[in-house]
Structure formats: C-alpha cells, structure tokens
C-alpha cells in the first residue's frame, strides 16, 4: 500500500494542488509543431509575426500537453488508479504561449460524486489553470476524472 | 489570393471534412509519453496490462494531437487566418488507443455566427470525431474556431 496514494475520499471540493514550473523549450516547441500542428505561425518567426498572434506561438495542444506533464508530476499523480480522464470542457486558450515562457498550473477540486455505473469509483471534477511567468492565465479547462474509492480495508488507516 | 482559401461563408453547417489516416508510431508514442504524460500505463507493457486499460495505451492528449495533425493536413488548413481555436468542449476518449493503431478523423460544421466583438470574423463550431482502424470512435470533441469573413473585395470572385 502506497501511503501517498490518493483516493476519492481525499479529493475534497476546495482542495488546490499546485504544480510546475516547466519551461517551454524552443526545440521541443518546434518538434511538437512539426509533428502535430505544422501551421506556419507555430514554425517560423516571420509567419508568427504576420499572424493574428503577432509572434511565433506554440500549439495550444502543446500548452495542454505541458499542463498534463505538470499534473503527472504533481501530488495528484498519487491517484490510486492513475490519472484517467473522462471528459474535458471549457478548454480555452486565453493568451498565446511563446518558446521560453515558464508555465505553472493549479488544479482545483470543484466537485465529486460516487459512480453508480462503476462501483468502487467516483468522478471528480478538476479545474486546471495554467499561468505564464507574468502570472497571466494562458489556458484553463474543466476535467472529469475517474478516482477509486478507498472504501473499507484498503486505506492506510486500516493497513 | 489563394484560390483554396476558406472563409466563413464557405463553412456551411452540415459540411463534412474527412482527414487522415495517420498511424500511431510506437517511437512517437513513447516519446510523447516520456515528455508529456509519463504514467506507467503509457510507458510500459506490463504496467498497461495491470491498469484499468488492460494494455499499453497512448496518452489521450496524443490522440488529440494526432487529430490536430490530421486537421492541419486537411482541406480545413485552408482557413484564411489559420486554425485558431477559441474553445473545446465535450472532449471525450471513448476507446483506448494503442501504438500501431491507424486513426482517421471527420470534422463536421455544426453551426456558425458572425462575431459582434471582432468585426470581419465569425465563430464556427466544428465537431471532431476520431476513429481507429476498426471504425470505432476513440475521441470526440466540439471546437469553436475563429474564421475570417470573406466580405466584399477579398474573395477570389472579386480578384
């Protein structure tokens, strides 16, 4: 039994988990753009300058991927069954992110309820907020995840 | 003037754009997992087999990234101002995706309206549906994007 494991009972609404920082590496940014989002404003300075963004910016999907990495490196990685996403809503990119920016995240427990269809599990609603080095919100979303219920005989207090 | 450019007027509700296929490369899958979602069930066969998924599966964010790549390689890449996402809702992962799977996508124009706050632009709602080689839906989402209005004097018919 991992004493650090998190269960449904541990994720009380109002609890906040902070994660990061992580720096947007320019090489990783161009690799991501080439593989997954090869639009000119993600690849070339001049095309970025001429775009609606006014500068080279990273793919919004890479901002989401970096936020996932911070989640996976946070205390929330201790969720006993892993970070298993059910649904994402209200994913918004509020500010462009540039190579070299330094991102950090907050994960807030918004609400939770036990599952009827999947006994032993519950659904927890997390709000993700990703900020840059100036404290500006660059991305936010709401994420429903599966979380195992500790129940009887499984928790550290019974071990 | 690019004759292939797409404007708000071209994206009529009901229009469907098909894209792909793209194969989930095992090396790319492990690189993505190491950089952005290093959970054991994305990295190791044995951990995948022991997980809720029952096998090694790729990160859901990589499925989204591959879908973005198919979008960027589709006819929709002709949107005059680029593919600029405003918001994502109802992003769901319906089936696990494994290295070696072959993905394809459909992008449906659901609705559109001209912007009041940003003259010369409109908001178009796209539904993305990503399928595997067995025709099973693996991911879906709804995506609001900015699209420039052709207006007078800008379209090919005026050029």
Automatic annotation (TrEMBL), chains A, B:
InterPro entries to which the protein is assigned, alphabetical: HotDog_dom_sf, MaoC-like_dom, MCH/BMMD
Where in the numbering of this chain does the MaoC-like domain appear?
Answer: 13-116
Per its UniProt record, what Gene3D superfamilies does this chain match?
Hotdog Thioesterase
Which SUPFAM superfamilies has this protein been placed in? Thioesterase/thiol ester dehydrase-isomerase
- The identity of this protein, by name, is Acyl dehydratase
What organism, scientifically named, is this protein from? Chitinimonas taiwanensis DSM 18899
């Amino acid at each position: 039994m991992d004493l650090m494991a998190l269960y449904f009972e541990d994720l009380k609404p109002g609890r906040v988990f902070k994660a990061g920082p992580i720096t947007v590496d320019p090489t990783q940014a161009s690799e991501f753009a080439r593989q997954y989002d090869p639009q000119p404003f993600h690849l070339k300075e001049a095309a970025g300058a001429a775009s609606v963004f006014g500068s080279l910016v990273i793919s919004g999907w890479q901002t989401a991927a970096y936020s996932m990495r911070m989640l996976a490196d946070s205390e929330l990685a201790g969720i006993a069954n892993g970070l298993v996403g059910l649904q994402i809503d209200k994913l918004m990119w509020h500010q462009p992110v540039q190579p070299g920016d330094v991102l950090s995240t907050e994960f807030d427990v918004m609400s939770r309820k036990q599952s009827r269809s999947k006994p032993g599990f519950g659904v927890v609603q997390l709000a993700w907020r990703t900020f840059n080095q100036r404290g500006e919100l660059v991305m936010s979303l709401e994420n429903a995840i599966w979380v195992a219920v500790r129940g009887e005989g499984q928790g550290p207090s019974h071990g």
